[in-house]
Amino acid sequence: MTDEDLIAAARQAAENSYSPYSNFAVGSALRFADGSVVTGTNIENASYGLALCAETVAVSKAMADGVRGGLEAVAVTGPGDAPITPCGRCRQVLNELAQLGGTDPLILCVGPDETRRVKLSELLPDAFGPASLD
Ligand code: THU
């Protein structure tokens, strides 16, 4: 599973976006150390503030299946004209899973012309995570 494959998986996931209120379809794909991939897309709600982001949905799917680490890379796709970066809440949600496995995943922020590659620790420096509660 190359980075391009991961981006393709995120784009595919966005096909299932339920975003009738924003019309902003986001896709995400998580790649794990064992080669497995878990995808997510944003799920909105008539009560607008209850929207679930694509990255949060993907992390929730993985953790609900028992995954607790090994997060190596995350691709995020959106319809905008610039690379899409995870929102603040999603950065925190991604950090929980990453810290559990002691990884600092590469975040592929996909845009129409370029993909921005950043580490999660760059997007969320000095993160509060599981170890902070020790
Ligand atoms: N959204 C995501 O899915 N991920 C992000 O990181 C940013 C925003 C979604 C939430 C909402 O459904 C739509 O994009 C517009 O904000």
TrEMBL record:
<dbReference type="InterPro" id="IPR002125">
    <property type="entry name" value="CMP_dCMP_dom"/>
</dbReference>
<dbReference type="InterPro" id="IPR050202">
    <property type="entry name" value="Cyt/Deoxycyt_deaminase"/>
</dbReference>
<dbReference type="GO" id="GO:0004126">
    <property type="term" value="F:cytidine deaminase activity"/>
</dbReference>
<comment type="function">
    <text>This enzyme scavenges exogenous and endogenous cytidine and 2'-deoxycytidine for UMP synthesis.</text>
</comment>
<keyword id="KW-0862">Zinc</keyword>
<protein>
    <recommendedName>
        <fullName>Cytidine deaminase</fullName>
        <ecNumber>3.5.4.5</ecNumber>
    </recommendedName>
</protein>
<feature type="domain" description="CMP/dCMP-type deaminase">
    <location>
        <begin position="1"/>
        <end position="131"/>
    </location>
</feature>
<keyword id="KW-0479">Metal-binding</keyword>
<keyword id="KW-0378">Hydrolase</keyword>
<dbReference type="Pfam" id="PF00383">
    <property type="entry name" value="dCMP_cyt_deam_1"/>
</dbReference>
<comment type="similarity">
    <text>Belongs to the cytidine and deoxycytidylate deaminase family.</text>
</comment>
<dbReference type="InterPro" id="IPR006262">
    <property type="entry name" value="Cyt_deam_tetra"/>
</dbReference>
<dbReference type="InterPro" id="IPR016192">
    <property type="entry name" value="APOBEC/CMP_deaminase_Zn-bd"/>
</dbReference>
<dbReference type="InterPro" id="IPR016193">
    <property type="entry name" value="Cytidine_deaminase-like"/>
</dbReference>
